[in-house]
Protein: PPM-type phosphatase domain-containing protein
Amino acid sequence: MLTTVAQPLRRLFVESDMEVPEIIDVTSGHVAVFCRRCPSKIEPNDDSAAMIQTVSGGIVMVVADGVGGCPLGYKASAIAVESIIESVHEAAPLSDLRPAILDGIERANEEILDLGIGAATTLAVVEIQDRVARAYQVGDSMTLMIGQRGALKWKSTPHSPVGYAIESGMLDEADAMHHDERHLVSNLVGSRSMHIEIGPARLLAAKDTVIVGSDGLFDNLHVREVIDLARSGKPVRRISMLADMATKRMTDPSDGQPGKPDDLAILIYSP
Structure:
């Protein structure tokens, strides 16, 4: 049965430098959000995030990572998340959110290209409706769907040479974390060759968790570590442990462990 809510719930996190996570109550559970600027960074946070719960009960979570070194990366990521949320909001009476999400991504690409300054961003989007989740991706921000006991039920593939090498089995994750080309991205919003990858529709079990994060998370923690920290417990505890561990790796990497100072954006949906 389709769940309905009286009013849509929208939250945007742009240029955020949060000290503590924010927990947003939604009809089917909770969305935990954490966005923080790279340690010791003066410029704005290039990572943006957003979520919306529509009147039809659907939930859409968005993470965008403005490309470092490009002009106004933070502006590109803000355009991306705002375009998605606005497009979904406009289509809110409809239960099928897929056309709105695709339209929002295309709008964002056109608007960023129109800036004419070479700005670009990654984008990861997840919609959840009636316990069915589907991910959309441009770039190397990632989505995980995991079970309460730690089973990895689905993972997006980063759009990068290293991401494709891991997916094909040519490179294992441990070596990839230290690869010289780890940070190259082959698909971006703000590119005339942008393409959108649409994941399969996945039915979530009662206690499944969905994680969306920028490479500030996944370049500092192995996928298995992310799963183990986020698979169970109260929402604030899950996201706090992820943020704390990623920050520790950024500022004080251990021997043999990944460590890359970066902006950080994490969203976790849990029932």
